[in-house]
Amino acid sequence: MPMDRPTQAGPTTETGRTTGGRGPGLRLGLFAPFVLLLLLALAWSAGWFWLRGKAEGEIDRWFAREAQAGRQWTCADRSLTGFPFRFELRCASLGFARSDVRFTTGPLVAVAQVYQPRHVILEATGPFKVQQGGLDADVTWTSLEASLHATSDGFQRASVVADGLKGSVTGADPSPIDFSTQHLELHARPTPGRFETDGAVDLSARVRQAAVPMLDPVLGGTEPADLALDATVTRAAGFRTRTLAQELERWREAGGTVEITSLAAEKGSRRLRAQGVLALDELHRPSGQLDVRTAGLEQVIAPLISEQLGARLGGDGAALIGNIVGQFLGGRRKEPAPGQGAGDRPGEPPLKVLPTVRLAGGRVVVGPFAVPNVRLQPLY
User: Fold this and answer.
1) Average pLDDT estimate for 348-363
2) Whole-angstrom Cα distance, residue 120 to residue 289?
C-alpha cells in the first residue's frame, strides 16, 4: 500500500505551536489607536454636553439675578449649540427692560470657543429700538460685530464694529434727529498702570462718513464728517448696570474725568484737532477746557460771536466787531513740537490755534468770548 503523505504544516516551536499566523495580541494592537480615539471622542462629547448644561444653568441664574435687580432680559427661542468645539448662544430677538429704559434688537448670536470661553464674539441683526424717557430711537445697520475678552479679574478688551449704521431719534426738540455713518469702531481696555489706582479705562473711537443733517447749517456744509477720538476715562471701574443718572452721579462724585488725548474731526475743508480734560459740574453739565486747533472753522465760529456783540452796537459797529473777532479767532499757525508734525496736509489750509475753549457755568467760552445762544444742558 502506498504510504500516506504527511500533511503540510507550518514550522513548529519547541512547544509545538505553529508560527505561520498572527497572534491575537498583535491583532488587538492594530485596533488600539482606533479604540482610544473612540473613547476620546465619547469623553469629549460627554464633557461638551456637561459643560453646556453648566452654561445653561448659569445663564438661567444670571437672568434671575438681573430680574431681582429690576432688569428684565428676554432671549426669544434661546438655544445653545456649537458642538463639538464651541458654544453658540442664539436668540431670535433680544429684549431689555428697566424702569428708565428699554430696548429690543433682532437675531443675535454669541460665540465662544470651548478652549477660550472668556473670549466672546457677538453678531447682531437690526433693527435696534430703544426708548428712554420721552426719546425713541430706531437704528439699523448692514453688519455689527462685538467682542469681549475677559479674565477672572475682569474685562481685558471690548470692541464694537459696525458698517452702514443709520437711525433716527424722535421726541427731542427739534425732532426727528437723523444720523448715519459708513463705518464705526469703538474699543475699550483697562489703562495699563492706572486701572487699579484710578479705575481708568482707555477709549478709542473711529467714525467714517458720519452725517447729522440737523447740524449742517451750523457747521457750514453738508459733507459727511470723519471723527477720531482717543481718551481715558478715570473712575470708570465702578460702572455697573444701574440707571444712567445713578451711574453718572456716582462717577461725578468720585471725581471722574474724561482726558481727551486726541480728538480729530474733518468735514469737507473744515478740520479740528483738540485735547483737554472734561468733567461734570454740580448741576450735571459738561465742564472743563480744551486746546483747539482748526482750519476753516473760524469762519463758522466768528459770526456766532460777532452776531450778538455787533447787534448791541449796530451798523458799522457790527462790521467792526465781526472783523476783530474773526482776526482774534484766526490765531496764528501752531509751530510743531520737536519731532512732531504741525498736523497740516499739503494743499490744505494750515491749522491755527484757537484761544482756549472753556466749558463753564453752562456756557461755551472761546477766549474772552462766550458763544451766544449756546447753553449746555444737564445730562441727567
Assistant:
1) 89
2) 38
Rounded CA-CA distance 249/236 in Å is 12
Above 90 in pLDDT, residue 29?
A: no
Measure CA of the first residue to CA of the last residue in the chain; give whole Å: 122
Residue pLDDT, tens place only, 46-75 = 999 999 999 999 999 999 999 998 899 999
**Of 280-294, 326-340, 366-380, minimum mean pLDDT range:** 326-340
**b (16+ CB within 10 A) / e for 155-191:** eeebbbebeebbbebeeeeeeebebbbbebebbbbbb
Cα-only R_g, the chain: 33
Give the residue-averaged pLDDT of 284-302: 85
Three-state DSSP at 46 gives: helix
Number of domains in the chain: 1
Cell 520737536, residue located:
338
What residues contact 99, with CB distance under 8 A and at least 6 apart? 70, 243
Q: Phi and psi dihedrals of 194, rounded to 5?
A: -125, -10
Would you put residue 16 in left (φ > 0), alpha (ψ -120 to 50) or beta? left
Beta bridge partners of 260: 231, 276
Whether 129 maps to a domain, the answer reads yes
Q: What are phi and psi of 181, to 5 degrees?
A: -155, 145
Supply 97's cell numbers: 427692560
Predicted TM-score of the model (pTM): 0.79
Query: Are the CB atoms for 198 and 189 separated by under 8 Å?
Result: no
How many other C-beta atoms lie within 10 A of the C-beta of residue 196?
11
Residue 305 contacts residue 324 (beta carbons within 8 Å): no
Residue 56: give the domain boundaries: 39-182
* Phi, psi values for residue 275, rounded to 5°: -155, 155
Residue 53 in any domain: the answer is yes
In a domain, 74, yes or no: yes
Evaluate whether residue 244 is within a structural domain.
no
Torsion angle in degrees (nearest 10) through CA of 269, 270, 271, 272: 180
Cα separation, 362 vs 380, in Å, equals 14
Cis bond upstream, residue 303 (ω within 30):
no
